[in-house]
Amino acid sequence: MLLPKNTKHRKQHKGRIHGNAKGNHDLAFGFYGLKALQPERITARQIEASRRAITRYLKRAGRLWIMIFPDVPVTGKPAEVRMGKGKGSIDRWVCRVKPGTIMFEVDGVDRELAKKAFELASAKLPVKTKFVSLDQF
């Protein structure tokens, strides 16, 4: 699973996801892409499940780029622990995704194959998504 090698601070505040994507809103490498339409936190497990769904459906043909990375630590406390006693330990890593962010890109396959692969990947993600291609831009 994806996680950063090192971070400046061990734990972070939760924060909020405001506005639309400033960068990473156009296709950069591939011909087809999967774009987020909602703000959400996407976990490393969800990214990995989506990646597996895409690569298995494409039968390792073409090239896949993952354009998001989980760099935000989320803490959690064990079940049945009383309030207080500080912040919990790091439970998982997430990526804050704003509306308009391209999450995955694919090249080297035909349109219908890419569209079906992204539909399978979208089922693994907690956001509404849209299939985009370079001929739309």
Explain this structure to me?
The protein is α+β, with helices and mostly antiparallel strands and 137 residues long. It has a domain at 32-74 and 90-136: Ribosomal protein L16/L10 (Aldehyde Oxidoreductase, domain 3), CATH 3.90.1170. Helices cover 20% and strands 28% of the residues. It has helices at residues 44-58, 111-122; strands at 32-36, 40-43, 63-66, 72-76, 89-97, 102-107, 129-133. The strands form 2 sheets. A 4-stranded antiparallel sheet has the order 3-6-1-7, with helices on one face. Helix 1 packs antiparallel against helix 2. The two termini are 32 Å apart. The relative contact order is 0.31. The model has no long low-confidence stretch (mean pLDDT 95).
Features:
single chain, 137 residues, Aldehyde Oxidoreductase, domain 3, 2 helices, 28% strand, elongated
β-strand number:
7
Alpha-beta classification: alpha+beta
CATH fold description of one domain: Aldehyde Oxidoreductase, domain 3
Radius of gyration based on Cα positions: 17 Å
Order of helices and strands: EEHEEEEHE
Strand content: 25-35%
| CATH-derived architecture of one domain | Alpha-Beta Complex
What topology, given as strand order, has the largest sheet? 3-6-1-7
Give the N-terminus to C-terminus distance in angstroms. 32 Å
Helix content: 10-25%
Oligomer: single chain
The number of helical elements comes to 2
The averaged pLDDT comes out at 95
| Low-pLDDT sequence parts | none
Mind telling me the CATH superfamily name of one domain? Ribosomal protein L16/L10
CATH class assignment of one domain: Alpha Beta
Largest sheet: 4 strands, antiparallel
Q: What spatial form do the alpha-carbon principal axes imply?
A: elongated
